[in-house]
Structures are given as C-alpha cells and as structure tokens.
Amino acid sequence: MSVKVGDYVFLIYDRKRRWLLKAEGGKKHHTHRGVVNFDDIIGKPYGTTVLSNLNHKFYVVRPTPMDLVLKMQRATQIIYPKDIGLILLNTGVGPGSRVVEAGTGSGALTSILANYVKPSGMIYSYESREEFLNVARKNLEKAGVIDYVELKNKDILEGIEEENIDAMVLDIATPWLAVKLAYDALIGGGHFCSYSPTIEQVQKTVKELKKENFIDLRTQECIVRDINVEEGKTRPETRMIGHTGYMVFARKVV
C-alpha cells in the first residue's frame, strides 16, 4: 500500500522522536535532524526510508489506532491503550456490535471501539460538554471512523435512547447512577464496563450492579512496565505509569 495525498503517516526518527503527519504535496516537515519533504513520501509504499536534507534517515509507517490515540488532540485525560485493550477483550466488542459509551471526552476510547465495530456496528457516544464533542469529532475524522459513531450532546443520566445494545462502557464520575439505565438498555448477556480512577467509585458501582441482575462481576487494574533492552544492561525502565484507572466488568442476565 502506497502513501496517497491526504493520508496520515507516522514518521519515526527514533524511539522518542516520532510524528503523526498528513501527507500533503509540496509541504515539508522541519525537525532537529533536517527537513523531510512530503514529495519524497507520497506515492511510496509504507515502510519506506526517507532522508532529510541533512541526510538523516526517517521511517514512514502506517499509523496504528494506538498511534492515533497517543498523538490525538486532547481536551481531557484519555483512557490509555493498555486499558482499552482489556475493555475490548472483556466486553466482546467486534464487527457489528452496537455499543453505548458515556463520557466521550477527547474520543480516544471512542475511536478504538469504532475501529472494532465496523463495518456494520455503531458507537453511540454521550457527552454533556459540547466543547469536548467538537474535539472528539475532529479526532474521529482523523482516525477515519466518524461514520461508525453517533455523537450525542447529552448527559447519559437523563436517559439512554438506544435499546438492545451489546455493550455499555462508562467513563463518567458517577457510573453507579447509570447501572439501572444500563440494565434496561442491554440485551440479555450484554456487557457492562465502567472506568474509574478511585476505589470509592468502584465500590459504589459494584454495589449497584449487585442490586440489579448482573453477574460475573470483576474489577481489574492494568499496570504495564516497559523493559529497556540493551546487551549487558537489560532492565525495567526507571519511570512507569503506576495507575490510570480501575475497570469494573459485568454481564446482564434476565
């Protein structure tokens, strides 16, 4: 597959210096290692090596959904890819799934969910703050998944418009208040997930899930540690993200 005008490319110099860029004819990207000309990229296959005017090598690769998430414009804190992976696996979201999400924020989780439900599924994403939706819409367009998302400028606690959904994913301050709404909207066997930064939120949510007819309740935290691999001195990285959030999972039964 070759790079076309208007495509997004991931330009990599080394582990720390990398850029998500739109390929536009006649444009150039300036770096501390020289200028990269987009005309040297357009029409070339992904995986191409290009040289800057200072003769430094840069690598042109196709951005993954994770690349798009980590480089997207942020209006809010995002759910990190390490947590999104667990959410996908535990909720069974896949092609054709209909998913309600609340707390769109910058659209990080939204974009990944949409990437997995296409071509026949849909994400219905609720967000009470219009300024966040505007940022999310731009990020979803950049990711190429806007056609699989219906953005709703509404507080989900005011009611869920959809019925018979396959999964619900909540990233809101009071997920326990949406548990009954989730139960009514989900299909039998449908999946519930809430993402919360504090254990107090988790306790309240689990308490409400037990009141409703949810089973298979699980609470998980995902901690990832990068390893610096060099001959003779391989060791864990000095810094790591210690905590992002707790994920509560459950299934509806009737």
What does this entry look like structurally?
With 254 residues, the protein is an alpha/beta fold. The chain folds into two domains: 8-63, Vcp-like ATPase, Chain A, domain 2 (Roll); 67-252, Rossmann fold. Helices cover 24% and strands 30% of the residues. The chain contains six helices and 15 strands. Strands 9-8-7-10-11-15-12 form a seven-stranded mixed β-sheet, with helices on both faces. It has a four-stranded antiparallel β-sheet with strand order 2-1-6-5, covered by helices on one side. A hairpin with a 5-residue loop joins strand 1 (8-12) and strand 2. Helix 1 packs antiparallel against helix 3 (108-117). The longest helix is centred in the middle third of the chain and has 14 residues, at 130-143. The chain is globular, with a radius of gyration of 21 Å. The protein starts with 7 loop residues before the first strand and ends with a strand. The mean pLDDT is 94.
